[in-house]
Specification:
about 20% helix; alpha+beta; 4 helices; about 35% strand; about 180 residues; elongated
C-alpha cells in the first residue's frame, strides 16, 4: 500500500554530521531501563542489566568521511543453548566504523580499504550503531557452565547396542 515506517530505534542518540567540525568529539551514552528492556526484546535476551558506550567521532580525509571509534560495555543475560537457563556475561567490545555520503563512497581517497557505511542526509544515530555493535558482540552459543548436550540425549550405548536417532524406527520396520 504506502511506505511503511521504519521501526523506531530503541536507543536513539542522533547527531548531525554537518555540526561536526575538525575537532574530535567524544560521546558517552547509557541506555535507561526502558531502552535496555526494548533492546533485550529485540535481541531475544533475558535481560540487559547495563549498557554503555563511549565513542570518539572525527572527520577524516579532509571532511569527506567520518570515523567513529568506540567501545560498548554491557551486562547481559542470554538463554543457554542447551538448558535454556540464564547465562550472565559481561561484554566489552571495541569497534570502528567509517561513514560517508553516498556520492563520496566510491572515491579511492575515501575508501582506502575501509568498509564504508552510507551516510544519508544529515543524521547519524550513534545509539543505533552502539546497539548493533552490542548485538555483534553477543556470544552466539551461550552455555551454562558444565552444560553438555549429552545431558539431554539418550544414552549412546544401551544394552551393548549403539543407539541411533532412528533406531526405534528401524526396529518397527521389521515388525508387520
Amino acid at each position: 500500500m504506502g511506505d511503511e515506517m521504519a521501526p523506531r530505534p530503541e536507543f536513539p542518540f542522533v547527531i548531525h554530521p554537518s555540526e561536526i567540525g575538525e575537532k574530535e568529539q567524544i560521546f558517552e551514552i547509557e541506555a535507561d531501563s526502558a531502552q535496555r528492556d526494548a533492546l533485550a526484546r529485540r535481541f531475544d535476551l533475558i535481560e540487559i542489566a547495563s549498557f554503555k558506550a563511549r565513542m570518539r567521532l572525527r572527520r577524516r580525509h579532509g571532511g569527506a568521511s567520518l570515523r567513529l571509534l568506540g567501545v560498548v560495555n554491557a551486562c547481559v543475560v542470554q538463554r543457554c543453548v542447551v538448558t535454556l537457563g540464564p547465562v550472565k556475561s559481561d561484554v566489552s567490545h571495541p569497534f570502528e566504523c567509517i561513514f560517508s555520503e553516498e556520492n563520496q563512497r566510491g572515491r579511492n581517497d575515501v575508501m582506502l580499504n575501509d568498509e564504508v557505511e552510507p551516510l544519508e542526509g544529515d543524521v547519524l544515530d550513534i545509539g543505533e550503531v552502539a546497539s548493533e555493535e552490542l548485538f555483534l558482540a553477543l556470544d552466539p552459543y551461550p552455555r551454562v557452565p558444565d552444560a553438555a548436550l549429552t545431558d539431554f540425549m539418550p544414552e549412546a550405548d544401551v544394552g551393548g547396542k549403539s543407539r541411533h536417532p532412528f533406531a526405534a524406527l528401524a526396529a518397527l520396520k521389521g515388525k508387520k
